[in-house]
Amino acid sequence: MFFDSHLHLENESFESDREEVIKRALDGGIDLMINVGSDLETSVKSVELSNEYIGKIFAVVGYHPHEAKFFNEGSYKAIKDLTFLKNVLAIGEIGLDYHYDYSPRDVQMDCFRKQLRLAGEVGLPVVIHMREATKDTIDILEETNAQAIGGVFHCFSGSVDTMKRLVSMNFFISFAGPITFSNSHKLRDAVLETPIDRILSETDSPFLAPVPYRGKRNEPSNVKEVVKTISLIKKIEIADLEKMLYKNLLNAFPKLKLFKN
Q: Which residues, other chains included, contact 126 with Cβ-Cβ below 8 Å and sequence gap of 6+?
């Protein structure tokens, strides 16, 4: 089965046709989607979508590094309360983003640490956003013993060496539309070198549409283009790859097993 392990259907770009986008994905064989929050509001919306599409859409809740400056004791408690819902699979997307620095770096790091510790407390994996912050991200993961909880580095854009380090720390590596771009040689090297039992596929919709949709609004049905590219790079038949990736998904997000035979 095809799945999209990371997307943002609550995004305002889907406001006028969200149901049609979801139907298009389901009709196209995308049987499972994981909607990821960026703050309390979007996390709640993710849960609402997961309640509307039981067994098809699941939620991840947390504060993105861009929104870290708004994270406080109240939002911590609210996110924690959401983690006990059956449809909530992980805490995310959390991490560090030094490209935009929409939140001060020290604030990002504090928010990241607190959410990692929360994940350990409630026994959920994490979904991590890392941009131009490799060293600090890894340092904080080690400091908080994040290897014990594991999780996913979404829309991975790092080096082969970074990938190997993260895999050794019990993380899955999720690839998105950029691996289909003609100039993505280093990223394709990362796909090639990532162990097949540690790979996931995603769209990060509405962002980063793959070829041949590059430049347009992305949507979950486009995850097939990501899987096709992984298939070509790894030289694995798509039918076999689908099964491998789905097994990885269940291992990355153990609560999914409550819904699947």
A: 62, 90, 91, 92, 94, 115, 116, 119, 146, 149, 150, 151, 152
